[in-house]
Amino acid sequence: MQSTKMQFTKMQFTKMHGAGNDYIYVDCIRRPPPDNPAELAKKITHRRFGVGGDGLILICPSDVADCRMQMFNSDGSEAEMCGNGIRCVSKFVYDEGIVPSTELKIETGAGILSLLNEVEDGKVTKVTVDMGEPILEAQRIPTLLPGDPLVKNVPLTVDGDEFHVTCVSMGNPHTVIFVEQATDALVLGVGPQIEVHEAFPQQTNVEFVEVISRSVLRQRTWERGSGETWACGTGASAATVAAVLTGKTDRTVLIHLLGGDLEIRWDDADNHVYMTGPATRIFDGTWDPS
Hints:
Elements: E1 11-18, E2 21-27, H1 37-44, E3 55-60, E4 67-73, E5 78-79, H2 83-95, E6 103-108, E7 111-120, E8 123-132, E9 154-158, E10 161-169, E11 173-178, H3 184-195, E12 205-213, E13 216-223, E14 227-229, H4 233-245, E15 252-257, E16 260-266, E17 273-278, E18 280-287
């Protein structure tokens, strides 16, 4: 009798992190893309039954850039961009010889971004990303909160408590709240409620930010579709923009995150936000879906 056992295809992957924001990366330039990546993301990122990670990122060919990044959160939802994730994509394609240039462009759901690799002993250690101009119009963020013209220090009521929020999009929506201390009660309790609040039609990432000085912030992030992550590059960019808009910092800041530090500069000349941070390859592996 002929066996009817289903055949599974093993998949090669690389696990990388940017300041502790860890993702599973799959090379879809030299290998076929995985079937149903949204479902794969939920399984492979599980921290007990899978490899573990904040999400899944596919490194794909592009007709308009050096490569394309497609990312899925750990809940299977697709996201536009990840600042820490794109630095790791840049490191991967350089280190692997796919794009042997220190300057490159990567296509994302938020547009085409320019990156500059810093290389030591033939390997990328740090990457600067031109995150583009922040989006400040309420309709484009998007949020239903009032903005005239900015959604700045606007009251938002959550479970009977009022918070003053500033909303910024860096290609994905962020809600920034300045606090004396970013406690577990705020991040893990209030964060998930704001993520799905009716004021945010596409949900939102939530940053709880402590102001240390005019040039230093400390941040914790409740990330849309992933929960708390150890770093968020777009969130750090949004927090910097919000801090400048509310007069709390200068335009160049160092941001302390749970997984490390990011340098953020909101340039006054071109209105672009520039993010510099590490990219680290952890290990390579094989995923057996059976």
